[in-house]
Input
Amino acid sequence: MQLKYLSLAALAATASAQSAMTLNATLSNNTNLTNLTTYLNLLGIAPQLANMKNVTLLAPSNQAFAKFLNSSMGAALKANDTAAISAVLMYHVLNGTYASSAIKTTPAFIPTMLTNKAYSNVTGGQRVEAMLMGQNVTFTSGLLTQSHVTQANINFTGGVIHVIDTVLVPPQNISTTALAANLTSAYGALANTSLVGPVDIASDLTVFVPSNAAFQAIGSALSNLTTAQTSNILGYH
Output
């Protein structure tokens, strides 16, 4: 009996493998992913992705791309900035195959294929957070854009695809992130001490950024410090 069950399992696995299509065929068969297919072909990324194995593709739906184009972050797509678009797309390719059932209520930070030094100065490439929130499988970017899976576990020969409802925005450098988070006092302090450039190109950092209120609380003390002293305090963070 045990051999019979093993044989049935083997046959099921073989049938599943044979039914999986290539990435191009899988995307082409999904009418909700035509924008993604267009960008992948436009940038010549499709063949590269088609040859990848053991990956998870977070595929923004057509509605997700439409929403992204109407946001300030969508300027790169409107301007046909191929390098930026490529970075955004590679940020949606996870290193490893993750079925929706593998995403739990404990957050996991999964490495992506965005390793281009112009957009990633962290060891192992940029990561996204994966977490089960209620009934929703959710992915969150470094800039805290949050996306929910609307169609899960579409298998293809190189891994699995999850359709998501929001384009994930890759992390930016520290100064850009500070401004996006309205941390204007921190940005001003970096600019006044000529630290914007060095901090933006530094790698593998964890930065504790004081809020605007925190800077205001010590405003009188800061005004009496030299540039070197202020620079040392910022470096301590």
